[in-house]
Amino acid sequence: MSIAKRGRLYHLRRRVPRRYRGIEPRETVWISLHTDSETVARSKADRAWSQMIEAWEARLAGNSVDADARYEAARDLARARGFRYLDAGAVAKLPVEDVVERVEAIPAPANQPDALEAAALLGTVAEPRITVSKALELYWGLAKEKTLGKSEDQLRRWEAPRKKAVKNFVAVVGNKEIANITRDDMLDFRQHWLDRIEAGEVTANSANKDLIHLGDVLKTVNTMKRLGLSLPLGELSFKEGEKLTRPPFSEGWIRTRLLAPGALDGLNGQARALLLGMINTGYRPSEGAALTADTIRLDGDVPHISIEPKGRQLKSHYARRVIPLTGVSLKAFKQFPDGFPRYRNRATLSAVVNKFLRANGLLETPRHSMYSLRHAFEDRMLAAGIDDRIRRDLFGHRLDRERYGKGASLEQVAELVARIAF
Questions:
Q1: 136: which of 105, 177, 191, 394 lies 20 to 30 Å off by Cα?
Q2: CA quadruple 309, 315, 320, 324: dihedral positive or negative?
Q3: Which SUPFAM superfamilies does this UniProt record tie to the protein (predicted)?
Q4: How much of the chain, in percent, has pLDDT values that exceed 70?
Q5: pTM (whole model) above 0.85
Q6: Are residues 219 and 305 in the same domain?
C-alpha cells in the first residue's frame, strides 16, 4: 500500500489491476482517506481499497446481459458509493440536496458522466421480474432460518419437494411471472392433480403437499421481497381420506421371526444393529443412524443413548431425550460403540432394511416396515401400564398437559423398559 499526502489529506495510491482495465480508464488511482493523520490513514487503507474493488466488481457485473445480475450490480455499486439503491421514481422524490449529492458522486472522467455509476445512483436499472422458477432461487435465501441445523441429508430432503412442486407447476402452467399468476392458473394446476387422483396415480395427500410447498415458496417471496401481491392460493386443497398408519409388529412376530437365530444374518452389520437397537428403544431410524461415540454411552451405571441436535435438526425440541439400552438393543450397540458412519446423514437405512425384510419374508404384512418397530415398542409400553409422561418422553412427543418436575430418572425408566425388553 502506497500512502502519501496530497494537499492536507492522505491518499492511497495503487495501480489498477488488469481485471478492471476495461471499466477503469486510469492506470493509477488516488483514493482519499479523509484524514491528515498517517496512523489513521494506514488503518483505513485496506478498507478503502476493498471498497474500490467492490465498486469495480459491481461495474463489471453491470455490463452483464442478465437482468438479475445488472440489477444486483447496480445495488452493489450504489452501496459501495455510500448510497442505498432507489429506483428513479424514488430518487425523484428525494429532497433536492439529496439528489444533488447523488449526482455529484457520479464520476465524470473527461467531463462525461460514467453511465454505469449514473444508473446505479439515479436508479435507472429496472428491477427484474420474478418468475416462478426465479422465486424458487430466491426462496432458498429468504427461508434460510428454516434450514438452520439441518444436516446435508435433511437439507436435501427439505429442498426436494419444493423443487418438485415448482417443476410441476411450470410444466402445467408455464414459468409465469408470479405477479401474473391468476386464479384460473391455480385452478388449472389443481385440475391436473385431480385428474391424477382420479386415475389412481397419486393420493389427495400427495397433491395437497405439492400445493402447500408451491404456496410456501410464492408466499415467502411475496412477503420477504415486499411485493404486495394478492396471490390466488386459497381453497385449493383436496379432502383427504383416512390417514394410513404403519401397523406394529406383534410380540410373537418379533420373538419368533425377527429374532430367530440367523434371521438377520444377510443384513449388513450396521443396518442389523440399528434394527435391533430400535426394538427396545423405539427411536426413529434417522435418529439411530445419527448417533456417534459421544451420544452412545455404554460405560455408566445405566447404558443409554442421547438423541441430540448434533450435525442435524431434530423433528422438534421434544425429540431431544435420553433412552436406556436394554436386551438385544444394548447387545447391538456394544458392537458399534462409535456409531454407524455408513448411514449417518444419509437417507438409505430404511430402504435397505425394508428391502431385506421384504425379500426374506420378515414383514408381518405388506403394510409393515422397519418403522413398525417404533409402534410395537409403544404398544408394549402401553400394555405394561407405563405412564403416559414416560412414554412420551421416550418417544420425543409433546405431552398434552403441563410438564411438572423433571420426570422419571434414567434408572427408573431403564427398570421399566427392561421389563418389556426382548
A1: 191
A2: negative
A3: DNA breaking-rejoining enzymes
A4: 94
A5: no
A6: no
